[in-house]
């Protein structure tokens, strides 16, 4: 009997559903627990409660060699570093080391050193084949430089590089400076990863003005359809309190003030950094750890007037006079 392609597709879907249902309903025959885990080392399905080995798999997807510590794994591994979006070639090209030594650590002769210098020079030249790749290399190096200055994790650099590549693909760079687009992508990456960095902080490490960063960021976010949630002031509280050397009690009180006042709608239209700074100032007074408005303003990079205005609104909402 010859089945039509549509019938074969339905049979495959029903078989897949049956396999998923079987794996969901599977339980340990010994203790009837559903907490089953797969061991990475031996490819076995094990009951997490009683330790019974339920199934042994013959296919091992790992390497054929064995290693018992990090140095052995490094010496036996035959693969390079993982690909990364933070480099224009995704880290796939060869890099010639600047140490003029051979594999045994011996110094090279003057003739070999000159030869290696020429090879390095041409290696750097052929890594970028045209102006577009050179511009991408410059932009990604700028993102890496600013990310290092801001102290953000590597995940933010990866996300920012992906956003910049998307902007380049959509031809959003035309008519704008490379530094401006790179900085706006870094700011967008910080927001997407939940790493709070204000526009003022990003502008400090950038070579473009804050106004241009904000304008470019809004344009890139709109054109690429980036879904950005409003920044929560509570995300700034731990870092500001750490810089002010405030106690954990002040941090918890500031978070409570932000929650209470935000529920009453005071956060709408306000700067999150200024709102967080005022809450920390109010919390320090309530906890008898007085911090001056100037100290808080310098850490949060806002004006003392902003702190005073937000502080008055918050204590009125809290019913503290």
TrEMBL record:
Keyword Translocase assigned: no
Ranges in coiled-coil conformation: none
SUPFAM superfamilies: Cyclin-like, Zinc beta-ribbon
Annotated GO biological process: transcription preinitiation complex assembly
CDD domains: CYCLIN_TFIIB_archaea_like_rpt1, CYCLIN_TFIIB_archaea_like_rpt2
Keywords assigned: Initiation factor, Metal-binding, Protein biosynthesis, Repeat, Transcription, Transcription regulation, Zinc, Zinc-finger
PROSITE patterns assigned to the protein according to its UniProt record, in alphabetical order: TFIIB, ZF_TFIIB
Family: Belongs to the TFIIB family.
Protein name: Transcription initiation factor IIB
Organism for this UniProt entry: Natronobacterium haloterrestre (Halobiforma haloterrestris)
């Amino acid at each position: 009997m010859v089945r039509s392609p549509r019938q074969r597709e339905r049979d495959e879907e029903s078989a897949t559903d049956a396999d998923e249902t079987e794996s969901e309903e599977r339980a340990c025959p010994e203790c009837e627990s559903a907490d089953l885990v797969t061991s990475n080392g031996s490819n076995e399905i094990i009951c997490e409660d009683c330790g019974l080995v339920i199934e042994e798999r013959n296919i091992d997807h790992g390497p054929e060699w064995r290693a018992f510590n990090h140095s052995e794994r490094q010496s036996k591994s035959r693969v390079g570093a993982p690909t990364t979006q933070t480099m224009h070639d995704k880290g796939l090209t060869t890099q010639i080391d600047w140490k003029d030594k051979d594999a045994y650590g011996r110094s090279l002769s003057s003739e070999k050193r000159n030869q290696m210098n020429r090879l390095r020079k041409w290696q750097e030249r052929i890594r970028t084949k045209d102006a577009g790749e050179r511009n991408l290399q410059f932009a990604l190096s700028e993102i890496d430089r600013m990310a290092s200055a801001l102290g953000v994790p590597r995940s933010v650099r990866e996300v920012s590089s992906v956003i910049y590549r998307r902007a380049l693909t959509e031809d959003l760079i035309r008519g704008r400076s490379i530094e401006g687009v790179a900085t706006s992508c870094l700011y967008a990456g910080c927001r997407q990863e939940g790493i709070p960095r204000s526009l003022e902080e990003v502008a400090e490490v950038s070579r473009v003005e804050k106004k241009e960063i904000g304008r470019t960021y809004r344009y890139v976010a709109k054109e690429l359809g980036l879904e950005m949630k409003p920044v929560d002031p509570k995300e700034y509280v731990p870092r500001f309190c750490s810089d002010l050397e405030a106690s954990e009690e002040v941090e918890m009180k500031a978070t409570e003030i932000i929650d209470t006042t935000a529920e009453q709608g005071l956060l709408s239209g306000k700067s999150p950094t200024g709102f967080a700074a005022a809450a920390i100032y109010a919390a320090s007074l309530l906890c008898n750890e007085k911090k001056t408005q100037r100290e808080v303003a310098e850490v949060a990079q806002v004006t003392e007037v902003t702190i005073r205005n937000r502080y008055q609104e918050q204590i009125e909402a809290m019913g503290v006079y």
